[in-house]
Amino acid sequence: MSNTFLPYYDPAVVRRPKRLPFLVVLCVIIGLLASGKAYGQRVYATVSEGNATSGTTITNLSSSQGASASSPPSTNIPTTLSTTGNTLSTNSGWVSLKFTNAVPTSLHVFVKFQNQSITTGSIKAEAFNGTSTLPVVGTQFTTIHASDGSFYYKVWAPTTFDRIRVTTTGGLLLGTATANISFAFYDVLTNDCGNGAFSSLNISGGTITNPSSATDGNLNTHSTFGIPLGLLANLQQNVHYTQLSNPNEVASVSLSVPPAFLSVGLLGSTDIKLYNGSTTVGNFQVAGLLQGTDLLGLLQSGGVAKISLTPTAPFDRVEVSLSTTLGIELGLNLYEVQRTPPKPTFNSTINDTVFICSGTNTTLSAITPIAGIEHVWFSTGLETENTPIAIGSLTTPTLSSATTYYVAARKINCSATSERVPVRVLIHPASLAPTSVTAVPDLICSGSSSAISVVSPLPNYSYRWYTSSSGGNYSYSGNSHNINLLNSTTFYVEGYNSITGCSSSGRTPVTITVNPLPTITASSPIYACAGSTSVSLPYIATSNTPTTYSITWGGSYGFNPIANDPLPTNSIPIIIPGTTTVGTYNGILTVRNNNNGTQCNSANNNFSIIIQAHPNATPVLTSFQ
User: Fold this and answer.
1) CA–CA dist 574, 584 (Å, integer)
2) What are the distances in angstroms from CA 466 to CA 137, 440, 477, 503, 505?
3) Going by C-beta distance under 8 Å and a sequence separation of 6 or more, which residues neighbour residue 557?
4) Which residues on neighbouring strands pair with residue 143, listed in sequence order?
5) Spatial separation of the C-alpha atoms in residues 535 and 266, rounded to whole Å
6) Ordered DSSP codes for 256-290
7) What span, in angstroms and rounded, lies between the C-alpha atoms of 14 and 443?
8) Which residues contact 131 (CB under 8 A, 6 or more apart)?
9) pLDDT of residue 324
């Protein structure tokens, strides 16, 4: 049987397997329909109506209506609809199962049957709305057969409907079609986290065991596909959803492969198809999807890989198949088939490969998802390792070696995630601090300059000069600088590679010792009488230990300049030339100290000497004269 999903229950189709006597065909449905795990509320049809035309009988009509909108029928006795045709014409009859309110848009209705039988004729299910005698335009249904003889019709339509009509048609020559109808329902998903509702199997050779494990929401359990050596086989597991996928949802399939089977071309024998009813909206060969990805490596190591597949239109069923025409032994484990957001994406600004410098960290992110979606981060690509290490963005620890993280997308408050996308953090080595830095001279007077430079600078390096051993902002950038300093300073030089953008982890120090300038305060002006041969220049408030002094004069006065004579205590003697006339004579006094061999001069101290004339003597007259 090439397709489990038939538009009609046709006995001619059911008999086809006798043409392939060596194949064993089994179709099984595994329901999670009572678990409530994927649903918020189940709604049952509560009104049963029938039309028993000529050749049609309807019994137990009320047995197929729910006890209430939220409760199934109170009896297991089905409603039986049976129609027999005439010798030269067909007859049709129907049973309608009506819901209290219209079925929400995009939801599917499931009609359960205990069994069916057809000699000639057909059975179909269609969506109707209100009192209309015509089915809703675009109504479709598929059949899902069960191992106990019962099965489901899945019915949907693109527009509003409030009831499902099951029609039996008896064929010519007294052909009969009988349907035993249990009930009809749909599920309202208050928090649809994308798990499959149930699955069905189509097995032609080989086995599929534990099929319900592919729809239980548990990534630690799986269904198992097995094809023994020597068989020609086609194994299909279909995962069904109770409604069409939402826009921007994808099918995310988690699977693993026993490593022994990878070498015999298993991946080329594994296909995944997405359906909207009976229409294919995605057809993928697993081998082509995995080439050149991290997922192939996961499968080759026996790990669980998840593949996110983008449909061309909304989907309500995913089919995973394993087949061989070579008689080789094959196997496959199917963990989950879920509807999820698309896998995270990146662009030139938000990249999936990030370079950082050794010993630093970074914050990783993907392109911001749409509302209601979040990104989750993992340390491994293995689906069985499903505890996130971060949500939204990921701030890494300090890294010194290349590290790969994985990011997936999921609905907020849901656990089902998309395929994980690797995000690689690659490490640039830390730059080198200079081995030697010089300052010439390294001992200067305050306000003087020194040339600081890196010895043997490296190409593509721009050296940064700091005044602290760590942190802070750099004062200069380059291989060398001339700087004026007022105080002793230690510079710390960091190597910065302009290609990688990485700085050295350490900084090389260089110290410039700055000697302070001496100071002196002279008393000025000082006075002398004409004809004086010397005068004393008092001073006070010296600092920084001046040891010598110098005097220069502001004009050609005949005063002798003094150069670096020992500084006397309290006052400095100045020789007045004999030719000095009455007037003001300006001089400049400086002092010098000597620290560690460096002689520093003070700032200029201006002073004045004022030569005054002698006063005239006036005779004193007395009475004796």
Assistant:
1) 14
2) 78, 18, 9, 13, 14
3) 577, 580, 585
4) 153
5) 115
6) E--HHHHTTTGGGGEEEEEEETTEEEEEEEHHHHH
7) 104
8) none
9) 85
- The model's pLDDT over 362-375, given as tens digits with 9 standing for 90+, comes to 999 999 878 899 99
- Whole-prediction pTM: 0.70
Give CA–CA dist 311/416, Å, rounded. 18
Give the number of residues written for the chain: 625
Task: Tell me the CA distances in angstroms from 434 to 214, 427, 429, 467, 554, one per residue in order.
Answer: 61, 21, 15, 16, 51
Separation of alpha carbons 367 and 371, rounded Å: 12
Write the pLDDT tens digit of every residue in 32-58. Answer: 443 334 446 889 999 999 999 899 999
Dihedral-angle region of residue 365 (phi above 0 means left; psi in -120 to 50 means alpha; beta otherwise): beta
Residues 447, 483 contacting (CB under 8 angstroms): no
Tokens of 105: 């848009």
pLDDT tens digit sequence for 138-195? 998 887 764 444 588 999 898 999 999 999 999 999 999 999 999 999 988 766 788 8
Residue linked to tokens 């057909």: 122
Q: Give the C-alpha separation, 66 to 61, whole Å.
A: 12
Dist. CA 81–CA 567, nearest whole Å = 132
Summarize pLDDT for 5-16 with one digit per residue, the tens: 333 333 222 223
d(CA 320, CA 342): 19
Cβ-proximal residues to 263 (8 Å cutoff; 6+ apart), any chain: none
**Identity of the highest mean pLDDT range in 226-230, 269-273, 515-519:** 515-519
Could you give phi then psi for residue 554, rounded to 5 degrees? -85, 0
Check residue 404 and give its pLDDT: 95
Non-local CB neighbours of 137 within 8 Å, separated by 6+ positions: 157, 158, 159
Q: Whole-angstrom Cα distance, residue 343 to residue 391?
A: 15
